[in-house]
Amino acid sequence: MCGIAGFFHTKRDYLKEKDYFSSILNTMRESIKHRGNDENGTFLSSHCGLAHARLSIIDLQTGSQPMIRMESGNTCAIVHNGEIYNMQELKEELQKKGVSFSTTSDTEILLAGYMTEGPSFVEKLNGIFAFVIYDEQKNTLFLFRDRLGVKPLFFMMYEDTFLFASELKGLFAYPGNTPVIDKNSMCEIFALGPAKTYGKGVFKNTKEVLAGTFLSISEAGIKEHTYWKLHSAPHEDTFEETIEKTAFLIQDAVKKQLLSDVPVCTFLSGGIDSSLVTSISAWELKKKGIPLSTYSFDYKDNSVYFKSNSFQPSEDRPFVEKMVEYCDTKHTFLECDNDDLIANLYRTVDARDLPCMADVESSLLYFCKQVVKQHKVALTGECADEIFGGYPWFHKKECFEARCFPWTMNMTPRKLLLKDDVLFELPLEEYAMNAYEATIAETPLLNGESYEEKRRREIAYLNLKWFMVTLLDRMDRTSMSCGLEARVPFADHRIVEYVWNVPWDMKCPNGLVKGLLRYASTGYLPDSVLYRKKSPYPKTYNPEYEKILGKMLLEVLEDTSSPLTAYVDKEKVRSFLKTPSDYGTPFYGQLMAAPQLLAYLLQVNYWLKKYGC
Residue ranges per domain, the chain? Predict the structure, then answer.
């Protein structure tokens, strides 16, 4: 993985002020250098500047970027963040057309593919990617993003200059371009956060290349091109055929994503998703005589304070131990404590450039820092719940019937601590409802389906476009802030396309949650793990953590210079802190309850202060 950034103007000649604009490129690259500290480079032409910070995973010796290619009198340059897992097949196709290569990197394949077949070459890619190509002959800049939005790519117009970057901070590294937080920004934060509307960057005028699209920027303006989207169609495979095809797709995705010139590890929680990825990886590497390293995450003394509930019915460690023995992996148990959570709470805001998932995110950042000491590439079990229907809101009647985001069934917790005048000024419920309805309206439906199947498609689509993307953003920013590449085999678009049209009675046969995935995993997992009830990413249950957060938040609100005082009512907070926390009613998803609400508000204050508002 890497970080990319740059600027483009169809008429301005940057070479007339080469030193000045070269220094700007260096500043933009410096802002995202955490995404890749192995190498860096810049490219400057008359109308375009590209910057790259490289994390070397494939072709360690000759894969430097920006990469430039000249053919038939035309020059094209590329910067790329991501991995192309079918690179060898694509390379062989291009070689049959007479294309020659001087490196073994997937980046050169992207550039050669574009110059041979045009921007439609993106449709052939299997991978996670965000890349930018400048075509000198056409004086056109192209921005490409993978089908599910695993890799980030932001852009904006600043005055008459087009800017892009892997992270929002890269845009604001351009001279004079200061971030602006407006009313819509605060609606995003309080009505939707830690999620955000896809396509938006929250800050005024900032946007994000939509998943499955590419942009072309030229004298004709900015044009958006959709190259991939989900289509609904009748599912014609038998249940047995469906299990077989699902198993093949998952195994093939994991095998493809083991592609690396450096050692690979996996995150192992003991749940079915990460366990399946681990098991397939372990068997594949064992064929080559390579042991697999695995990592699990938990909190110090959580076994003492753990409280079983409907969201987290069991602890992970016993199941992790079973998988370590089953797969014979080199395992490391990682733990963090309250000090680690607090120390990384604001660092996650620096990584995301936005308030995020509080300690759910700060803990992952801490863990990634530990993993990267030994490994640069990790495979994870992210995205399976969204694809196979693992979350409670796929199954609960009240979630099924609610006309709202099912992971935020009640807006009351979001409004509980806000000032009355803020609630009057910010139309939070209306903003959230408009975002929800816009996604429902674009859900690809199938004529003739029952109301139940139609609604399940809507819930699945909401998950793919919102909840899954929030978790993918969390994984990308926390891992890349440490220089760790996290891969997500379940986010292979072939899996998503196929399972999208599988009817519910096959996804959840006889009421078995994620039954299709479980049957497709047979032979790779012990039964105790295969049929374990879902338990999400762990969080701390240490009561001292909430006390620390409450004290910190009151201290912030006592300081009249704190920007949060304009939004949060101090007396409401005091009353809130006197009430026992209810860990069973999260304000977002399954994990973010009372302690996480306090931590989120602390992040909001830090974010507002950092960006000068």
Answer: 2-185+193-226, 239-410+427-530, 543-610
pLDDT value at position 63?
66
Structural contact between residues 135 and 120, judged by C-beta atoms closer than 8 angstroms:
no
Q: What pLDDT was estimated at residue 595?
A: 87
Residue 583's pLDDT is: 46
What are the Cα distances from residue 190, in Å, to 345, 411, 429, 601? 18, 10, 10, 9
**What whole-number distance in Å separates Cα of residue 371 and Cα of residue 378?**
9
- Closest by CA to 281, choosing from 319, 244, 250, is 250
Are the CB atoms for 42 and 5 separated by under 8 Å?
Answer: no
Q: What pLDDT sits at residue 307?
A: 59
The pLDDT tens digits of the residues spanning 127-170 come to: 999 999 999 999 999 999 999 999 999 999 999 999 999 999 99
* CATH number for the domain formed by residue range(s) 2-185+193-226: 3.60.20.10
> How many helices (H) and strands (E) in the chain?
25, 17
pTM for this entry = 0.95
Q: Of the residues 2, 336, 368, 482, which is catalytic?
A: 2
Structure tokens at 34: 């955490």
Confirm if 294 and 265 have CB atoms less than 8 A apart. Answer: yes
| Tokens, residue 458 | 């809507």
CA dihedral 191, 211, 468, 367 (to 10 degrees): -100
Q: What is the CATH number of domain 239-410+427-530?
A: 3.40.50.620
Reported residue count of the chain is 613
Q: How far apart are CA 160 and CA 174, in angstroms?
A: 13
For strands 221-226 and 213-218, give the pairing.
Answer: antiparallel
**In contact, 536 and 266? CB cutoff 8 Å:** no
Cα 247 to Cα 240: distance, rounded to the nearest angstrom: 11
Let me know if 399 is a catalytic residue: no
Q: For residue range 37-81, list pLDDT tens digits in order.
A: 777 899 999 999 999 997 666 555 666 889 999 988 899 999 999
Q: How far apart, in whole angstroms, are the C-alpha atoms of residue 23 and residue 30?
A: 10
Residues of the chain with pLDDT under 50: 583
> What pLDDT was estimated at residue 274?
96
- DSSP output for 107-154: HHHHHHHHHHH-GGGGGG--EEEEEEEEETTTTEEEEEE-TT--S--E
